[in-house]
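Retro notes - structure team

What went well: the batch runner handled both jobs without manual restarts.
What didn't: labels got mixed up in the shared folder, which is why I'm recording both outputs here explicitly, each with its sequence directly above its tokens.

Job 1
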Amino acid sequence: MNTDIKAITMTTIEIAAMTGKRHDHVLRDADKAMSLVHEKMAPDLGACSEATYLDSYKREKRMLVLNKQMVFTLITGYDTELRYTVVGRWIELEQAANPTFASQAITATLIDLQTRVDMMAPAYAEHTRKGTTTGYTWREACRLAGVENPDKVLAMLVDKGLARRFNGLTSLAPKFIERGDAKRVSKANKAIQMTGHLFKVTLKGVDEWLRPNAEKIAKALIEHRKPRPVVDSDGYVTDIKGEGSAHMTIVDLPKETRQ
């Protein structure tokens, strides 16, 4: 390898701008990629470095500066169009920085990315097969979709009437089954013994229900966990639910929530 070729980096801000993704989401994906690299292989100390930038309000915010290996590791999980955009920009940077070695740089770039895509293919095929046949457990689906606190989210769905618990088993409301976001699972299924869930989430459910709404779900959970009154048909408070509500009385509630 010719050592005269200049090193090139790309920031998470640049990747967000090129792909149209929110920077905090790109930063989250990069953090996860780095975590996997550190867990499963010897970390490349030059693969990623911390940096800051000023947002539109002149506030200093965190970003990451990634080398070629980490940029390609990150975008392997993106769709073809987004990969094409980032790789195209990377090739432009390599040509500008190293005009003498432009053809070698382009070839190496394309081979590197294709190798990563090929390595991911078996895992992606298994991911697609599972999502379209057996389905994902609730926790698997939430992890894939970026939904945090899956157990608390499911408890919230139960409280809102979007899921039901009976005899220790949880099932989703029929509408999730009808629109193909989830499928029912027999009580005889071995997974039931571990999860207690009478459903599995489909690939459609991950891609069209959970992932696009991950941020809304997180905000809804925050609101749901706040202490709130439960009222009967006559408007009287019969219970108080939410975190820390075990020993609360109606006078402990914010005035706007009292009935």
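Job 2
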Amino acid sequence: MLTPRAKESLAILREVTAAAGLSSQGAEPIRLAENDLWRLPGNIVVRIARAGQEYAAAREVAVARWLAEASIPAVRPLPVEQPVHSGTRAATFWEELPPHRHGTEVDIAPLLRRLHALPLPPFAIGHLDPFVRIEGRLSGARSLDNDDQQWLLRWLEDLRQEWKELPLGFPECLIHGDAWGGNCVVTPSGAVLMDFERTSQGPPEWDLACIAVDYETFGSVSKEGYGRFCEAYGCDVMSWVGYPTLRGIRELRKVTFALQIADENPQALAQARYRIACVRGRRGPRPWGWSAVA
């Protein structure tokens, strides 16, 4: 039986597929989380973005098409006019990947090197906003008490100031924006990048910090694995003086994401509270062994 959330998503799916000239008959949910992913017969994946993400959805399709021209291994959008809108929700349509496994930090490192070496695309991609949606998540979190909310909002302001004063690093370039291991998979043809919702112009250190935080904060990347990642990419972002700021922003993003999920799925509440306790210094030093929420 479908949950109320799934029923709402299915109704949107039916509307957008009809508008794109496709059928939703036989659709199966893949994951209903930050974005809603559905599989259609015919090896098609539909990605329904959260409300207010219309621009990001359009940019994601444009970036993926441009990466195809640059021969970067990545998911490919269908050759249809998109995104398709249903109210404030934007949907995009993608070719389903062949059987694959999750990528590792070693798989994603060469792809990031190739991505960062590209020229900027001939269309507007915008500058990285590392704080996008954080304040809204904090103000709207129903499971957040006032003391934690005020502490996190103060931390957000501190990080915003640190970001403004971030020391110079590598030149800005095209960055993925959310380059954790889950956004890379390995098919029989090799590693493939996916999820270009946050792709923009920005410091490449931001992408590298994603893997560093998986190692240092989550503990989901081993010390040896992180060393192989640094070797494959060519540097260790943790040795950069600006890294603690990037780490803090990534951790705050992960805290607010858990809060967002907890409002929809009470089973995620314990993890959200644990993450808050960690960043407030109540659970000892990193790594904190954060678990995934969905």
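One thing worth noting from job 2: The domain at 4-96 is CATH 3.30.200.20 (Phosphorylase Kinase; domain 1).
We'll revisit the folder naming next retro.
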